[in-house]
Amino acid sequence: MEERLFTKLEFNKIRAMLAALAYSPGGKELAGRLVPHKSRGEVEKAFDQLEEAMELLRFKEPSFLHGIRDVSGAVNKADKGGMLHPTELLEVASLLKASRLGNSYLDTNKCQVLRPYLDALLPQPVLEKDIEKAIDDDGQVRDDASDQLRKVRRDIENLRSRIKSYMQEFIRSASGQVYLQESLVTERAGRYVVPVKIEYRSMVKGIVHDESASGATVFIEPMAAVEMNNKIRSLEVEEKREVERILRRLSSMTAVFSQELLANYDILVQLDLLFARGNLAYNMHAYRPVMRDDGQIDLQKARHPLLGATAVPIDVELGRHYDILVITGPNTGGKTVVLKTIGLFSLMAMSGLYVPARENSVISMFTNIFVDIGDEQSLEQSLSTFSSHISNIISILSQTDGHSLVLLDELGAGTDPVEGAALARAIMVRLKELGARAVVTTHQSDLKNFAYQSERVENACVEFDPFTFQPTYQLTIGTPGQSNAFEIALRLGLNRVIVDNARSFVPDREKETANMIRRLKENQHAYDELHRILDLEMHEFQKEKDVFTNEKERFNEEHRKIIGRSRREADDYLRLIKKQADEALEEFKKNLKADDNIIKWHEIEKGRNNLKSLGVRPDTKGAVEAASELQIGDCVQISDIKQKGSVIAFPAPAEVEVQVGGMKLRVKRESVQAVERDKSASVRQYNRLVSDRMKDMSVEIDLRGKTVEESLYELDIYLDNAALCSLKSVRIIHGKGTGALRKAVREFLNGHRLVSSYRDAAYNEGGFGVTVVEMK
Description:
Blueprint: H1 3-8, H2 11-20, H3 25-32, H4 40-57, H5 72-79, H6 86-106, H7 115-120, H8 125-134, H9 147-172, H10 174-179, E1 186-188, E2 191-197, E3 206-211, E4 217-222, H11 223-256, H12 258-284, E5 290-292, E6 297-302, E7 314-318, E8 324-328, H13 335-350, E9 362-364, E10 368-372, H14 386-399, E11 404-408, H15 417-434, E12 437-442, H16 445-453, E13 457-464, E14 471-477, H17 485-491, H18 496-504, H19 508-591, H20 601-606, H21 608-612, E15 635-638, E16 643-652, E17 655-660, E18 663-668, E19 672-674, H22 679-695, E20 700-702, H23 708-724, E21 729-733, H24 740-749, E22 755-760, E23 770-775
Parallel strand pairs: 5-9, 8-12, 8-13, 10-11, 11-12, 20-21
Antiparallel strand pairs: 1-2, 2-4, 3-4, 6-7, 13-14, 15-16, 15-19, 16-17, 17-18, 21-23, 22-23
Helix pairs in contact: 2-3, 2-12, 3-12, 4-12, 5-11, 6-8, 6-12, 8-11, 9-11, 15-16, 23-24
């Protein structure tokens, strides 16, 4: 694509904005040369890199890119055996430091797409440290660059101190006060001298180095200082040789890593451009567009980036339902801005830049973008002619194909309206034949009809407020625009008689069309207002709905918590009751004689508390005389309420705590009497319990079709009943299926208090679908 295209669509200004955000001169240069990519794959790769770079920018600026310089000149010089100056070596060290910090900046788990940059950056810490150790920030070789240099400079400093001391003594002496023009020590040609009056020149022994302009003063190096100054000059030569040796050593090291240095520089300036693209996207509030190859464009809320806060967002579509869009409307209505926005966004996206439009806006790859934008209609307000327009269009038609985007401003203008409209219509027919995507702006009414009558061609207009007659700069697709010339003329002060007379000259057909469009616009305006009100009401409704939904979720959550807590408490209580029942049952079985079903009294006494949990309450008839002292476990009768119970504690000297059924009562000692337990009642109660259970007792239980939770609950009750009925063996039918229920049953039986062992049934008894349990 030609540079002229970038100027016409003002892409060069976008590149300038991008360059201003780059950190280094190299990054700025790359930004100034940014051009569109050739394939969608390249653009998608650039977008992926940009997306990751913007994520990194959210947390930390890439400050390591500040101040990197192009070291290719210094590297080439070192490669040829040249000695680099300290400032050149500092630039090499700065580049190496940026490479090291860049490597650290990119070395993060969030860095995936940019991993090739990380892998390609090759820091050289040894060379970087050697240069920084030898050269200070002012570009001077440090004293401690080598031991020899440190010694030489120390000797020079010592000699200078001795000379200064001698000179100070000389100027403070009596003769010095007489001979000297001024009491100061200065330098000439690097040697320390004193200013002597011309008349005392012969009185001061030494070498004359200079004379003042007036001739009244000569600058003499005293003989006593000559030898020390000579020694300083000798040491300075030695210092120069040592500095040169250090610089040559560092230059040689630079030559060794010349390829790495050049590669690092190229990578760093590419990263600089990448992060500049990220900052530009943040500044523009831009988003990643969806790229396609089929010529479709669908921009939502697109804002021209050079118009800043004054940009009116537009929605524009092309390539899906129609290939040519004809935009009409009044002057200063924003038609050219729409044209430039479409072209500029296409260039930006194809160059790997996000666009200031709503997320997921669609832009296609084009092999060529052609523009003919009349400068008199451009943002820069220049001039153009009809002939230049036609010459440009001729060139465009000769190069256009099905992968081209053509943008034509004021097509058919600048000549006879009839001929201009006919010519514009023929050009659009040709663009249709070529399969190009095109956006055309015009004032020609005939082209509105052409758009209505032609397939794959659509009308659009930049909006004009029908009440204020001011442009809104919004684009509406599907409706042609009006010039509103008469209304504008009236508002500007043209006599109404003249305007009415002008209206009479308009053909009836044109009047009908204009009136129809005006009514359509007014209806559209009313519809938009109703739609706005509906949106507000929908927004309020959504807010109320969200509040209701949140309240409902809170209620359901609280309900779930209450139900869960209740179930846990019920399960805990059920486990406690079952445990007490199991203990009571075990006590009954231990104390039941197999031959005559007579329970030993002293063993019943041991398990009396557990019997109460089964509801077995002995009923005795006749009280026995109370012992002199009651003991825990004694059966007593409470005279006040005529109830029997067991002594469980003595909370106070004159009180007794008695267990009566499920209640614990504290009563006075004199209100209870010891009684004898009714053994036969306990036996009858137990026999009745066993008899009731045996009526419906089966030697097998079928769990098929039940959930695991239901199955284990029923199995637990069944095993209790089986143990109560003294069954030796039972069968559990769980089926084969997926094996989940069988596994759960086996895990439940492991370590069960009532189970001695279990096994799979025989093949003819059910096999793996049945488990045979041996009871304790």
